[in-house]
Structures are given as structure tokens and as C-alpha cells.
Description:
Blueprint: E1 13-14, H1 24-30, E2 34-38, E3 41-51, E4 78-83, E5 87-95, E6 98-109, H2 111-118, H3 123-126, H4 130-137, E7 153-157, E8 164-167, E9 181-184
Antiparallel strand pairs: 1-7, 2-3, 2-7, 3-6, 3-9, 4-5, 5-6, 8-9
This protein binds a DNA duplex through strand 4, strand 5 and helix 4.
Amino acid sequence: MPGSKDHAITTSGNLDRSFFSRDVEQVAADLIGITFLVDGIGGTIVETEAYCKNDPASHSFKGLKPRNAAMFGPAGHAYVYFIYGMHWCVNFTCGDGSAILIRAIEPTSGLAAMAVRRGVTDKRLLCSGPGRLCKALGINARFDGLSLYQPPFCLTYSQPAPSVTRSKRIGISLAKDSPRRFCATNSNYLSRPVSK
DNA sequence: CTACCGATCGCCT
DNA sequence: GGCGATCGGTAGC
């Protein structure tokens, strides 16, 4: 594509096979701007958080357990867990106990279906939070461990890489000062503003 | 806009 | 018995 006029405006296509087999923080940053669809429903990733096995806040910190098995499996798979008795959250694995929590996406496809699942119509509230986006995209335990390179998942480059802002993670009590949250700068679809 | 609170349940000590 | 990688509602500035 070098020399192509379109290259500076947009890129497209599936993620490279080795996309997730890199440093988890680098992958978390690179995911910002990627399109994430489940059965054709979803949008652009605007907020992620990186977790790894030597991180006290990570589900993998205390080693391999039935719940976090996907984190210790191959890179490029979904790690889905249930939290607070009512919410599902989805991560993308990067191998060796590391994974990236998908915290928010900007809805672009299947808005009506997402609105029905969520029970709200405000576009800003459809997928702005890890639990919200899983409900909007229909993600639950059945998706745990599945490859991100196979249906129902679809991950593609769909726009130029946006500016990324790095900050502290949300909702954790351990390692709370570590800046492993990555957001599309000035996005209107974050789970919470970047500033404290 | 920020802050607090209750809901609700699987997994841990 | 306690605590979550959360959310929606309410109160208050």
C-alpha cells in the first residue's frame, strides 16, 4: 500500500496472525481503533487495559485456575469471566498469563440489536463499559476460550490509528497506580473520563 | 459533572 | 463470611 492515496486515510483487513503474540501493553495500545464485531455487531475499540501474570491486579497473578485457563492458553483467544454476580467481561489473550480487558467500544454496527439487548437507546451508553459491551454484543461464558480469528468474532483494521492516551486502570484495588489503561484520545464512548 | 449505594453470585479463605 | 477488572439509580455540587 505504500504510495496508495487511501493509505493515509484508512486501512482495512484482518489482523495479522501474530498480532497478539507481542508485549501485552503494546497490543493493548494497538487495539485502540480496531473494529471488533461479534456476529456482525459491534464497533471500534476505544478503551483497553493490560494485565499480566506478575501483576497483582491480574486474574492470572495467583496462577492457573479453571476460571482463568484461557489466559494461560494461546494468544489471540477470548478470556470471558463473570463478575459481581451479574456482568460478563471479555479479554483478548496475549499468551503466558497476559490478556487485555476490552473496556469500551464506539458502536458502529448493529445499533438496533445492541439497543434491544441493553435496554437503552443512547448510543453513548450502549458499549461504554466492559459489562455493557458484553451485553450489547451478546458475549457470555460460551465464548470463553474461542479463537478471535474465527466466527463469531471479527477483528479488522478499519481506520487510521487514533491518538492513544495512557492512564491508570479502573475498578481495581491492587496496583492501582500502574498506567496500563489505553484510551482513544477525546473519545465520547469511554467507560469513564481519563482524568481522575 | 462526581460520589455513594445496593444488587447479586461464583470463588476464595 | 468477604470480596470482586460493574452497573444503574439517586443525591448533591
